[in-house]
Amino acid sequence: MSKFRLRYAPSPTGFLHIGNTRTALMNYVFAKHFDGDFIVRIEDTDLERNVDGAIESQFENLNWMGIIPDESFLKPGLAKYGKYMQSQKFDRYKQLALELVEKGDAYKCFCTSEELTADYEKQTEQGIVATQYNKKCLSLSAQELADNDKTNKPFSIRFKVPLKSWNLNDMVRGDVIFYGKDLGDFVILKTNGIPTYNFAVVVDDFDMEITHVIRGEEHISNTPRQMMIFDAFGWTYPRFAHLTLIVDSTGKKLSKRSGNNLFFIEQYKKQGYLPQAIFNYIALLGWSPGVEQEIFTTDELIKIFDEKRFSKSPSTFDMVKMTWINSQYMKALSDGDYLNFVKPFIDQEQFNLIDKSEEWINQVLLLFKKEIDFGVQINEKIGLFFDNFEFNEITKEQLVQFENRLGLINIFEDKIRQLEEWNIENIKNIIKNSGTEAECKGKDLFMPIRIYASKTEHGPALADCIFLIGKDKILENIDFVKNQ
């Protein structure tokens, strides 16, 4: 059996998002499971729509997620595989398109855009929904062809669709039958010499010896056109798998307009999601591991991959589930890795770290290791350790519910003032002894002390908070809250 070769072929008209990440990931995992090659090539023939920086973004984010190509224009394979950017293969496409003309499988079309538009409108007025080219240029005489060529009249090249059927044995959907009568003769080379998608992709897949094509279901209508081009050249089809849609919570195709969901991988990166968590979650969109386990390393996913477990139903992108998986990865980080990961997400315009020691910063951040789901969330947590944290009305209302709060806090404040050795164990003892003297326990003890000490009813372990806020600031906070 020949080596498996799979490809991800983005166009530089946009950036890496959930949908095309799933395509890249499935091709990558499939290839690696079978010790095959994963290729990234660039379909950049739509020159007017190409976006600056899109190619660089694709590679940067794929590499960040660990989806590393074995071959690309940055790392070409054997010379026989050709170029890895379609814009560098225009001569190859033109040569092969003219070959099909010579063989009688394609023909030159001299129809102008105005003529094509007029014919389209005529068919539409007649109630024809699936409009097709009227094949006007298929029946041109040799003299008409010669006259057009003599005057250098612009032409496209159209593929002559055989009136037969094609059976696609899809790895996801099983047998799907297409009929040539439903498909009009389509353009394979435009008047400007640029190939259309359905032609270029077949040439590229043949040149690169692609064995399997895994892509989204929106491409399934392209497949019969590609199969007939493979047939015209006598080339073998790759195996096809058309993955089901990824939908949002409303059942519509996931897009950048899908509610508040983050859509582009770069957005997740900036929010502080871990690449291995994103990889893990997206791998489960449209594919099942066959076990109840949900957290997998990349190596585990590659090892257990089974192409027979692609789903036949649309996959719902669940932001809550995605965030939960990320939180599990966050919790599993070592303390050192967690600190290295989360520090760059601190908003230093909001929180002044200049006069803070590295040890103090580390201790504060570690308090929230089990609480935050993604990196930037740290900014919602650490405010109580900085002067810019506000005492709000909700907290004030919480405090007044405790009738014995002033007696308790006076005892606590006095003990804090007298404390000489500032450490967590001594602070714990002060909290306990204050409760005994004030005859308070449970929430009646901890909540008033927390609010007076930190100006908020929320936070991690109370003694840790008090220790890190510092003695002077604790006394300042108590005085502030008393005067509200």
From TrEMBL:
- What's the protein here called? Glutamate--tRNA ligase
Q: Which Gene3D superfamilies does this UniProt record tie to the protein?
A: 1.10.10.350, HUPs
The species this protein was found in:
Williamsoniiplasma luminosum
What the protein does?
Catalyzes the attachment of glutamate to tRNA(Glu) in a two-step reaction: glutamate is first activated by ATP to form Glu-AMP and then transferred to the acceptor end of tRNA(Glu).
Pfam families this protein is in? Anticodon_2, tRNA-synt_1c
- Provide the primary localization: cytoplasm
Q: Which residues cross the membrane?
A: none
Alphabetic keyword roster: Aminoacyl-tRNA synthetase, ATP-binding, Cytoplasm, Ligase, Nucleotide-binding, Protein biosynthesis
Q: Where in the cell is it found?
A: Cytoplasm
Gene of this entry: gltX
Where the record places motif 'HIGH' region is 10-20
